[in-house]
Specification:
- The chain is mainly beta.
- It folds into two domains: about 30-130, no CATH class; about 135-170.
- About 10% of the residues lie in helices and about 40% in strands.
- Strands 1, 2, 3, 4, 5, 6, 7, 8, 9, 10, 11 and 12 form a twelve-stranded parallel β-sheet that branches.
Length: about 170
């Protein structure tokens, strides 16, 4: 007798663990801009983003992660918590935690981040700023000054020194 055995039980679908469900909000939500999509303008989202398409404008993801895939072509200034680049970026990149340039990355622009990882083979043309914000010293109280007044005095002094540093005055 020839033939195939068939399973009569209905197939049960496996859950997609990559998507965030309303029942389990702890799972990370990720949006993907596919390779056939082109976008011009300001892009903002409250979830991680993977770009495989073409973006022109600005990308603001200060609290989330941004990945430019190997097929991604971005002509924009980027600001995200963590930036990973596999594709092409023409614009300034700011990562609040880290910027990673993978071996296939081509970046033309300046990078500002406290940490930078650049794999062998990555192509980068621009400058890197890994500086941190200046640390404020705790205000010292004079004999008759309240804590609030001392803080106000320290904040004013800090703002004045920061504005002088920005204008080049000393």
């Amino acid at each position: 007798m020839t033939g195939r055995l068939q399973n009569t039980k209905p197939r049960r679908r496996r859950p997609n663990h990559r998507r965030t469900s309303r029942r389990n909000p702890s799972k990370r939500s990720v949006s993907v801009i596919g390779p056939t999509l082109r976008f011009k303008g300001e892009l903002q989202a409250n979830e991680d983003l993977v770009i495989e398409g073409q973006i022109e404008g600005t990308i603001a993801h200060q609290e989330k992660n941004l990945t430019i895939g190997e097929q991604g072509k971005v002509a924009a200034n980027i600001h995200a918590k963590i930036v990973e680049i596999h594709g092409e970026v023409d614009g300034d990149v700011r990562g609040d935690q880290i910027v990673k340039l993978h071996r296939t990355a081509v970046v033309k622009g300046n990078i500002q981040s406290p940490r930078l990882v650049m794999e062998d083979g990555a192509n980068f043309s621009g400058s890197v700023d890994m500086g941190k914000q200046p640390v404020r010293e705790a205000p010292k109280l004079s004999e008759h000054e309240t804590k609030r007044e001392a803080l106000k005095r320290a904040n004013l002094a800090f703002a004045e020194s920061a504005s002088q540093a920005n204008t080049g005055d000393t």
